[in-house]
Amino acid sequence: MPAGYPGLPSLNALRVFEVVARHLNFRLAAEELGVTQAAVAQHVRGLEASLEVRLFERLPRGLGLTNAGHAYSTSVRSALAMIEEATRLLRPVPSHLTVSVTPTFASKWLIPRLGHFAERHPEIDLRVLATDRLSHFHTDGVDLAVRYGQPPFAPGLNAELLMAPTVVAVASPGLLAEMGRPGDFAALQRYVALHDAHNFWPQFYAAVFPGHSPASARTVRFNQTSLAIEAAIGGQGIALASQAFVSDDLAAGRLVQVFPQQLRLDKAFYLVWPRKRQAPAALQLVRAWLQAQAGDRKSIV
């Protein structure tokens, strides 16, 4: 602590206090901050000890702010907002924005479109974090994430529908020419079923060939959808994938849709970002651009 500001608590402790005061719950605060409940409780105890003031009432079903804690939280929240705004104004352009996506979403959907984004928004330094691990907004420095599932995802997060995928069966035209298009269940069994981590094949069998067993000895399994798609392009078998991920390959003739049926899912891709007082302008632009791309609009933001 600088000598000119003796006795002031750490900025990190104040930030933890503000989040706990907002949620009145250690678990929810820990989820927003991306730390453990024990770490949150330790910060709160340390802050109360350093101030020699009790900020929270420990209630049977959670927490409550004392009168001192309520007044202090209002002042701290305003002070943190001023610091955040002052820091934002200091940052030079281009603005930095980190988007978290899965490797398949990155390689088969986002990356082919990034050239257009860079051309239209050169002032934004867009950073793509491609990982199968669930990213934490605070600890990983993520501003926006694309998540597959159903909301709500976590307290303190906004969620906005990006696209509702439909799953199709695809194979290389060369493989279909060699083996013949599978018109019935028996013919399909001659093909290798390329699986990914989602394992849509049982649902697809039930939708296209009801009453037949989904079991097949001819399978190859991958941990990522993009690998199954590449195997299908290479003529290794039939893959199930979101139509959004194979649309370019279908248009280019690298893949062919094997069956006309599409499997509709109860989950979808959502844009997810922290609920803050004021979202940065770059976040709004990236969200609008992603929505426009997902909608295949002629006029892109």
Automatic annotation (TrEMBL):
InterPro entries: LysR-type_TF_proteobact-type, LysR_HTH_N, LysR_subst-bd, WH-like_DNA-bd_sf, WH_DNA-bd_sf
Entries under PROSITE patterns matching the protein: HTH_LYSR (PS50931)
SUPFAM superfamilies: Periplasmic binding protein-like II, Winged helix' DNA-binding domain
Gene3D superfamilies named among the record's database cross-references: Periplasmic binding protein-like II (3.40.190.10), Winged helix-like DNA-binding domain superfamily/Winged helix DNA-binding domain (1.10.10.10)
PANTHER family documented for this protein: HTH-TYPE TRANSCRIPTIONAL REGULATOR (PTHR30537), TRANSCRIPTIONAL REGULATOR-RELATED (PTHR30537:SF79)
The family this protein is said to belong to: Belongs to the LysR transcriptional regulatory family.
Protein name: LysR family transcriptional regulator
Organism of origin: Pseudomonas oryzicola
Upper classification of the organism: Bacteria, Pseudomonadati, Pseudomonadota, Gammaproteobacteria, Pseudomonadales
